[in-house]
Write a structure and sequence with these properties.
Layout lengths: L1 E7 L5 H12 L4 E10 L2 E4 L7 E3 L3 E11 L2 E10 L4 E6 L5 E11 L3 E7 L6 E7 L3
Antiparallel strand pairs: 1-8, 2-5, 2-8, 3-4, 3-7, 5-6, 6-7, 9-10
Length: about 130
């Protein structure tokens, strides 16, 4: 298993930066195992929602995890507001790092990750196959 610990700096778009760095380091896909940091306004796509919801003010990232493939990413994040209110959902583009963001990306060596259509969900879902198959 190969790992990529990284830090994003103020102003980086969290999702777009993670996707770009993961695809560069791990072209066959990667998992985001751990993520903490801080954001200004937080944006999450809540369960069952079509559009993201914006939560104003400074937020701490409590956790961020998911998978990144050449066809797309599936990332979940939990954040806490300055008053300690916790919210969670799908990470969308537009979340800007406030002070720092620390992530651990991991490659599943010997595996190729992708996203394929799933008739049951209507979404592109994770598919893992051994490299060379």
């Amino acid at each position: 298993m190969r790992c990529l610990p990284l830090r994003l700096v103020p102003g980086n778009d969290l999702r777009l930066s993670l996707e770009a760095l993961a695809r560069q380091a791990f072209p066959d896909g990667a998992f985001v195992l751990s993520g903490i940091g801080s954001l200004g306004d937080a944006q999450l796509r809540l369960a069952g929602a079509e559009q993201a919801t914006r939560f104003a003010g400074e937020h701490e990232i409590l956790t961020l995890c998911g998978s990144i493939t050449p066809q797309g990413a599936h990332l979940h994040m939990a954040v806490a507001s300055a008053t300690g209110e916790v919210r969670g959902g799908h990470l969308v583009a537009g979340n800007l790092v406030r002070t720092t963001d620390e992530e651990l990306l991991v490659e599943a060596q010997g595996w190729r990750l992708s996203r394929v259509p799933d008739a049951g969900t209507g979404y592109l879902e994770l598919a893992a196959r051994r490299a060379g198959e």
